[in-house]
Every structure is written in structure tokens, then in C-alpha cells.
Amino acid sequence: MSWKISLGVEQILDKGKDGDALTRDEALSLMHLELESRETYALMECANHLSRTLFGTKGEKHFHIGLNVEPCPMDCSFCALTRQAGVFTEKIDFSLDQILSWARQGEAEGADAFNLMSTGTFSFDSLLEIGRNLKREVNVPLVANARDINHTEGEMLVDAGFVGFYHAVRLGEGKDTPFNPERRIQTIRVLHDVGLKWMNCVEPVGPEHTAEEIVDLMLLARREKATYSGIMRRINFPGSPMERFGMISERRMAQMVAVSRLVMGDTVKAHCTHEPHSLSLIAGANLLFPEVGSSPRDGKADTGEGRGKSVAKCAALFREMEWDPDLPSNCF
Ligand code: SF4
């Protein structure tokens, strides 16, 4: 058996290792590599090399704080917070004291950002108010994760102290969700117009998604100038309507993290994966999301008591994989 990797893959990786843009067909051919192949390991090595060259050794910890729980009427089929899932039957808006307490703990453990997530009908005024309070009380960059917004709302977020906005055109958008993908892209353009950094991830990946669907969202992230992108797999909560499809493994996710890393090339400040795990940290990822509060992946109202990992736990994962969680963030 030859120890060499195929010439075609070698040529793509040669291009990708310095951050040059890959074509759609090149990205697709990397998506189709066998997991158990030298080519896949070479792909992961190449993505790892690119990240460590561009990002130094920084391991980013962007702390997700889910602000509220509700049986959300938007009924996105992959989400545990939907009305149809029946996991949560009552609304909970976590108190400002609780949110501040999580934020202070996150700041003490070295969070590089707070990602403040709210569900479909959460009051925009409350989001602004929480932002203003956190801006006063803690010294960590604020990223909102909310519904689609217009220019006026974008400017209000900036005035309240937010510097970024997490937003994704999700896999199955418009089919598994009630949202129009074009409207989601409009929001991304609003972010650029008002000066909010656009944070993205290709999500929530399941085995049923085609390589084409996944690669097209990677290319969207590059074209629309994401500050970071990456890959998050779908987690099937008990009783999820998506259970019949199963879930992708962390190993398969790491391969996609590497493809996505090469697609983003030299245009990004970091590369994410979710949920936190080691393998993708040698495949181009250097950004993890610790979590507390509500989560679309958890049956616990506070995922800090469920699936969510703490900032300290993510920092420990980084150290084990020889990323430095204590350096300043490259994202802000
Ligand atoms: S993903 Fe967001 S909008 Fe969709 S059901 Fe869940 S909380 Fe609601």
C-alpha cells in the first residue's frame, strides 16, 4: 500500500494550507473523503496548521448564556425549546441577578465573550436592558443571539453595548424552521452596516444533510464575511422529531470542521465547534462555547446543570490540546 495521499487531495491541501480560497467542488471532494483514510488525516493536519499559523495558540471561550426558556411557537424541529417538543411547558425569564451571577463567574474563569441567546418571542427591550447592565458590570465583549433584526434594532444593540451578533442560516432553514433564508441573510447585512461583528456556525449538522447543503453554508459564511465560522452538530434531545435521522459522530464533525476551516481560509479570526470536544481542536477549531441557561439542545432549563460545559472545563480542554485559553481574544 502506498503511503502517499492522492495527488488531487494533495493539490487542494497545498492551496488550503496558506488560506487560499477553495472552489465548491474542491470543498465537496474533501467532504466525501473516507474517515478512515490518510487523506482525511492530512486534511485535518492542514486545517490545524492553518489555524495555528493564523490564530497563534489562542483558544477562544465564548460563553453562551441562554436568557429564557419558553415553549417557543416557532417550532424549529431540531430545538428542545419548541412548543411541539413539549419538553418545556412554562416560560422562564432568568432574573437579572441570575444572569449577572453567571456573567461574573464566566468573567472570573476567563470568558472571551458572552453570547446572550434568547428564544423566538423574547422581548427585544429586555435584551437591550440586559446588555446595558452587563456592559456596566462586567468587562467582557457582548454578542447577541436573537431573531432577525432591522437597522434600527441593530443600532439599538450597538448603543446598549453589544459588539457582535451570532446569526446563522441554519441547515433546513425554511423547511425545518418557519424562517426565510433570505431574511436571515438580510440580517447578516444589517450587522455589517451597523458595525456589529457577524458570528456564525454551520449548524445543526445531522446525517441527513447533503455535502452540498453543508458546503453551501460554509461558502456563505466566507462570502458574507463572518468573523468566525465552524461546525456544530445537531443534538437529538429525547423525543426529538429528528431522532429518526440519528446524529453525526464527533469524528465526522472533526472532518467537517477541517473542511470548513480551509473554506474560511485567511478571512476569519477564529474557528468554532460545538459541543466542546477534543478532536476538532487538532482539526482547525480553536473556539468553544461553554454554556449556562437555556439551550436548544437540553431538556434542563439551565444547561449548566445538564449538557453545558463551564468556562473552566473548556479552558482545561484547550490546555490538553495545547491551545492557550489565557491569551487575549483575536475576535474583537
Ligand atoms: S431555534 Fe429559536 S426560534 Fe427556533 S424554536 Fe428554538 S428558540 Fe424558537
In short:
Helices cover 37% and strands 14% of the residues.
The major pleated sheet works out as: 7 strands, parallel
CATH superfamily: Aldolase class I
Element string (H = helix, E = strand): HHHEEEHEHEHEHEEHEHEEEH
- The CATH architecture term is Alpha-Beta Barrel
- The helix content is 25-40%
CATH class: Alpha Beta
Q: Helix/strand-derived class?
A: alpha/beta
DSSP summary, beta strand count: 12
Mean pLDDT: 97
The radius of gyration computed from the alpha-carbon positions, rounded to a whole number of angstroms, is 19 Å
Describe the structure.
The protein is built from 10 helices and 12 strands. It has 332 residues and is of the alpha/beta class. Helix content is 37%, strand content 14%. Helix 7 links the parallel strand 6 (162-166) and strand 7. The strands form 3 sheets. Strands 1, 4, 5, 6, 7, 11 and 12 form a 7-stranded parallel β-sheet that branches. It has a 3-stranded parallel β-sheet with strand order 8-9-10, covered by helices on one side. It has a two-stranded antiparallel ribbon with strand order 2-3. Helix 2 (24-31) crosses helix 8 (211-223) and helix 6 (151-160) packs across helix 7. The chain has one domain: Aldolase class I (TIM Barrel). Bound molecules: iron/sulfur cluster.
